[in-house]
């Protein structure tokens, strides 16, 4: 710029367009250059001169060697350095080891849960090379946990990768390491925690499952479950629960697939039951809740409803279990009760499952599945679901077949009901609701009879047979008599003249139905309040502090009363004026 010398020009970090950078090989050299600039005019320090804005469009001059100086702004226009995704993934995996160390040191499972939550962001970037590099850099070749590393490497197909040597950390710049007092280096004496072993094993399970290597994953998970069963560490509870989860998923994908008694899914039940017994004895809440849910899923997959019912009756689900596990348990319990024709209990459990389902997008599939089963149970109970359930943006497309089903059941159209089953039968089978929906045929007929009883004061059995598409008048008579006995309709049946006479409908609000509906809603709100209070976190020893403050307040009151009695205090000392009546 004109009017200014280069010595006074401001200097920013890095190089400039058209300027030359000063290469500083050492800190001493940089300091010597700084001292030379202060001595005088004879020895001047070379300073990078920034070009003006008008000269920014000119090409940069060549340096001594004839090469063009690289501009940092050209490398990254947005000012952000590009990081290698492989290095970033490795750093993300190793960063969770610090969380596991803190979980062990502080005996706090929240750090382990933070490490598990990071798997969802890491799993898309996992490759065998990344896993092998992390394992090779974590374990030493002669350590006591080298056999775990060999199993991990063999699972990802990198069994020929060598672990880092014990002397790799002992030499710096070619000089031999000085012997420590205890005869071992600091890094050599620090062993890899079992929590880190299981975390890496979970990453291997995730990679094998995403790669659809179910046979290799099943063998590796079997070894991993045996290894976990030999350990007895409370800090492994949340990690072990995740291992058992993937252990079950692998065997579900092996042929023959579930819904048959020959499925390999049956072979893992002894292992899961042994893990459940051990978890109950050790009071491992995470493993206990996870294994119970896995066993219920296992029994339902092979249609062993009686064994699932025995498991529920002989075990107690932990009260302090994670919210996700509680939602899964309530869903499977609701499915069992629906199959057992206990629709009221099934409706209660499924309602709790939908309320406890996470609102995040990753749990959308569970919410849809639980809502579908809840809608079918409500129809079996004789209730019609609210239209607002089908208007939710996340549920509208998935619940479209069920919306049509509800419409057919609501009007009692048997012909439309059968057409919907024929059209969407594959969807209902995939959702495992087909057998329950077939039970709705009687409900459709009862609904049709109820609609006719409301529309007509008297209707012949022949007209009922024609409207409901029944085979004969005898079947219509039987269905009407059963509906009267069950309390579906209030009518009388005249067999001689062959017609049904409806009674006058009273006021619904004069019955107990509104009060029972309000009572159910109040119970749900109170239960939600109690669960919210239990889930709150309170500061440690807060009750002692409150007790101490209360005792100090009582002491002050006693002293004040004593001084008042002795006459040491007057109205001014008590604060403010006092006017008697």
From TrEMBL:
Origin: domain of life: Eukaryota
Record field: compositional bias (Low complexity): 47-57
GO BP: any one term: ubiquitin-dependent protein catabolic process
Amino acid composition bias (Acidic residues), ranges on this chain: 566-581
GO cellular component: proteasome regulatory particle, lid subcomplex
InterPro entries: CSN3 (IPR050756), PCI_dom (IPR000717), PSMD3_C (IPR013586), TPR_PSMD3_N (IPR057985), WH_DNA-bd_sf (IPR036390)
Limits of the PCI domain: 327-507
GO molecular function, one term: enzyme regulator activity
Region annotated Disordered, chain positions: 1-69, 167-188, 552-581
Pfam families: PCI, Rpn3_C, TPR_PSMD3_N
Composition bias, Basic and acidic residues: 1-11, 18-32, 552-565
Keywords, ordered alphabetically: Proteasome
Family listed: Belongs to the proteasome subunit S3 family.
Protein name: 26S proteasome non-ATPase regulatory subunit
């Amino acid at each position: 710029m004109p009017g200014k010398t280069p010595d006074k020009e401001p200097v920013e970090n890095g190089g400039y367009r058209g300027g030359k950078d000063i290469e500083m090989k050492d800190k001493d050299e940089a300091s010597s250059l700084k001292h030379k600039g202060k001595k005088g005019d004879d020895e001047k320090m070379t300073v990078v001169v920034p070009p003006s804005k008008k000269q920014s469009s000119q090409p940069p001059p060549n340096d001594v060697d004839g090469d063009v100086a690289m501009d940092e702004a050209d490398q990254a226009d947005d000012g952000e350095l590009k990081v290698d995704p492989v290095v970033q993934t490795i750093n993300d995996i190793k960063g969770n080891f610090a969380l596991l160390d803190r979980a062990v040191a502080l005996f706090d499972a929240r750090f382990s849960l933070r490490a598990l939550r990071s798997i969802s962001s890491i799993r898309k970037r996992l490759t065998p090379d990344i896993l092998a590099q992390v394992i090779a850099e974590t374990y030493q070749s002669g350590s006591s946990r080298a056999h775990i590393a060999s199993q991990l490497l063999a699972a990802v197909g990198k069994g020929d990768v060598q672990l880092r040597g014990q002397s790799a950390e002992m030499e710096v710049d070619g000089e031999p390491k000085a012997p420590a007092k205890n005869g071992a280096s600091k890094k050599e004496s620090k062993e890899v925690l079992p929590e880190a072993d299981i975390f890496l094993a979970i990453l291997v399970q995730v990679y094998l499952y995403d790669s659809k290597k179910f046979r290799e994953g099943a063998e590796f998970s079997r070894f991993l479950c045996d290894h976990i069963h030999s350990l007895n560490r409370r800090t492994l509870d949340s990690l072990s629960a995740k291992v058992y989860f993937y252990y079950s998923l692998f065997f579900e994908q092996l042929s023959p697939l579930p819904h048959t008694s020959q499925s390999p899914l049956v072979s893992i039940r002894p292992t899961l039951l042994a893990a459940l017994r051990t978890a109950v004895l050790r009071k491992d809440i995470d493993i206990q809740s996870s294994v119970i849910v896995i066993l219920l899923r296992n029994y339902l997959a092979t249609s062993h409803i009686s064994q699932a019912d025995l498991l529920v009756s002989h075990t107690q689900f932990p009260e302090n279990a994670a919210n996700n596990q509680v939602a899964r348990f309530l869903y499977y319990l609701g499915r069992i009760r629906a199959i057992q024709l206990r629709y009221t209990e099934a409706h209660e459990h499924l309602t709790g499952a939908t309320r406890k389902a996470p609102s995040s997008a990753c749990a959308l599939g569970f919410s849809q599945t639980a809502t579908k089963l809840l809608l079918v149970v409500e129809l079996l109970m004789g209730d019609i679901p609210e239209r607002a359930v089908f208007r939710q943006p996340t549920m509208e497309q998935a619940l479209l077949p069920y919306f049509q089903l509800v419409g057919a059941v609501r009007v009692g159209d048997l012909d439309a009901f059968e057409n919907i089953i024929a059209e969407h039968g594959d969807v209902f089978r995939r959702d495992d609701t087909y057998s329950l929906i077939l039970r709705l045929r009687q409900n459709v007929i009862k609904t049709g009879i109820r609609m006719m009883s409301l529309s007509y004061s008297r209707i012949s059995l022949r007209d009922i047979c024609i409207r409901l598409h029944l085979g004969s008048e005898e079947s219509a008579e039987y269905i009407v008599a059963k509906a009267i006995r069950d309390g579906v309709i209030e009518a009388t049946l005249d067999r001689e003249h062959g017609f049904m006479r409806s009674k006058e409908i009273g006021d619904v609000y004069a019955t107990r139905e509104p009060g029972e509906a309000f009572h159910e809603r109040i119970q749900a709100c109170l239960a939600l309040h109690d669960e919210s209070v239990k889930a709150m976190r309170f500061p440690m020893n807060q009750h002692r502090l409150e007790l101490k403050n209360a005792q100090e307040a009582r002491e002050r009151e006693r002293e004040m009363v004593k001084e008042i009695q002795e006459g040491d205090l007057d109205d001014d000392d008590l604060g403010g004026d006092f006017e008697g009546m």
